[in-house]
Amino acid sequence: MGKDKRAFPLSEIDEALDMANGASREIFKESMISVDHEHVALSDSLNVEQRVNYDEILAVVDSGEGGKDAYLNKLIDNIFLMLDANLADPNYITLRAILSTRNECVDTINMKMIGHLQWDEMEYYSFDRAKDDLHNYYPPEFLNSLTPNGLPPYVLKLKVNYPIILLRNIDPANGLCNRTRLIVWGFQRNAIDAEIVLGMHAGKRVFLPRIPLCPSDDEMFPFQFKRKQFPVGLALP
């Protein structure tokens, strides 16, 4: 279903050989390729609010001011308007998203967003070990630096009212399944007080325990890695 290549206005080709160095044909003239407005009409379909946000983001990008952090802060401010005031509203959370192709980018965005909030904060540290490592080949500092796909980080930073997502099936009969979305309401030493925000169990208050977790890919490391941590990740972007 592609476009015929003959329809593209390609640059002219020099049919002669370059006798000085024996190089083959080269493009000797650049042509100005006109914009096909049918293919770039996305901005024309925006509503008033989206248009304002779109123009503000482009203005920051075009100005070249502030670098990457400024662009990211501007993006967050425009997608999640009045974040502090609306974060506890499940509809506000589920109707907004920032898409990314890399988990590292998602983590960066979440850390930026959690820094925007003025709510109470808690940091939970995991207990990491390599099974059957009798000679301590893998020190704790090395194990703490690992964050395999599908596992929470060594330092899990949370704030009240921030949305989280469950990373394991804990109690499916009561709505605690892998990918369940919740809102944090409070912290205890060995439990997180949260509320399910989507699905048939929406509104149910639950307490999430700290549990032992292993990577889904057993061959990811030359040892069996185990992390005891709350099985949740930050869920806004």
Structure class: alpha+beta
The number of strands is 10
| Largest sheet data | 5 strands, antiparallel
Low-confidence spans: 19-33
Principal-axis shape: globular
Radius of gyration from the alpha-carbon trace, in angstroms: 25 Å
Termini, distance in Å?
33 Å
Q: What proportion of the residues is helical, as a percent range?
A: 10-25%
Biggest sheet strand line-up: 7-6-5-4-10
Quickly count the domains.
Answer: 2
Specify the number of helices.
Answer: 6
Q: What is the percentage of strand-forming residues?
A: 15-25%
**Can you give the mean pLDDT?**
79
Order of helices and strands: HHHHHEEHEEEEEEEE
Q: Your description of this structure?
A:
The chain has two domains: about 25-115, no CATH class; about 120-235, no CATH class. The protein has about 240 residues and is of the alpha+beta class. The longest helix has 16 residues, at about 50-65. The protein is built from six helices and ten strands. The strands form three sheets. It has a five-stranded antiparallel β-sheet with strand order 7-6-5-4-10, with no helix packed on it. Strands 2-9-8 form a three-stranded antiparallel β-sheet.
Blueprint (SSEs and pairs):
Blueprint: H1 48-63, H2 67-79, H3 83-86, H4 90-94, H5 103-116, E1 121-125, E2 127-130, H6 140-144, E3 155-159, E4 163-166, E5 181-188, E6 191-196, E7 205-209, E8 211-213, E9 225-229, E10 232-234
Antiparallel strand pairs: 1-3, 2-9, 4-5, 4-10, 5-6, 6-7, 8-9
Q: Key features?
A:
alpha+beta; about 240 residues; three-stranded antiparallel sheet
